[in-house]
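Data availability excerpt. The first of two example chains:
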Amino acid sequence: MLRTEDGGYLWQTCAIPPGAEKLDFRGVQAFDENTAIVMSSGPGDQSRLYKTTDGCQTWKLIFTNPDKDGFWDSIRFDFLPKKRQSNDHRSGVLVGDPVNGQFAVYTTQNGGDSWEIWAKDDEVNAYKRLGPINANTRESLFAASNSVVVTLRPNEIRFITGGEGGSRLFSAEPHNPFDNETKFKFTVTKLPFSSNKSSGAFSIASRQTQPYKDDLMVVGGNYESPDSVGACAYLPHRENNSLGGVVFFGSERQRVISSTTPPHGYRSAVAWDADQKLWITVGPNGTDISNDDGKNWRPLTPSPTDPEDTDKNWNALSLPFVVGPHGRIGRLRTIDQKAAVTKKP
């Protein structure tokens, strides 16, 4: 693990959490210059969360997967406006592969210090009352880029699936308060991705256009065939109803729009660049951008002054940074007709 305080010019080596030398760390969420949570992925108790409050000099184990058959895939926090949050009150979500036929979803309301599984029916805490999160046979999540889940607002999450059981979008949304039904339910939208053990939806990103209006972009493909044509689906926001601007599940069907020109290979991560007003997606064989909401993707190629592989061998995005295998780190620069991701040592 590495840490930077100057935008990526210099990198410091972090301490390794005690007993975690052989764990596979897939996710990180930084809150400020000193506070962060990292997630390891693996079967059973190899899925863990560690937290630092001193700039990664020391770590505290805060949560271990309680399911021996479980496997964690992604962690995400929602940052509220400063006037509504403190360092101790941040909501987050953690998702994992199915256990006993249901996806594992955990939430925190205190910056990750404690976690609770979202109950199917909790009469004590009504806001947590949820419908079941049932998985298809051989349906799973992919942990390649820590980006199979997004939080649009506190407790309003979206996560994507893949594998032989097919690719779907799960959306936890509030129910109409006047029908006295379960407070939250997961609605399901089928995604047009191929289905096998190495294929499906790998990454989801959101873009808020207006309050309570969020567009989604999903990318993926087949990680065992990275040069095959990639997969992409754009899901524009649904119109709000009249009850406070909130979209209640079932109020409008989610549209799914496939690309005319998809990404040029398997893609494991996607993000919205708000400064440059474009979507960017990365994978082992290249980088693509779209400025028409995923209808057409065009590849980025290195400029004459870049290393020839500057566009390739990337796994995950956290703009402006991009990371790849073997400690590879890059920083996105302003894109023009010959733009490329600039590689950093």
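And the second chain:
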Amino acid sequence: REVNSYLALIKQQNIKNWNDQDYLSMTALKFAIANVGMRQSREVDSEDLRQLEKIGTEIDAYLNDPKQ
């Protein structure tokens, strides 16, 4: 259910030249980042978690870029 939710949100972006594999890859990455974040939420000082959150933010910024 969560994967389908991520996929629907990403597909709404209608990114030019992306095929289903691209959408699924981005969905898997965002899902993995969210899962790691949930597992490590107790370890607030985790450098890995901060790096993944940064990547997640960069992905969101890319997906929301109107120039695509």
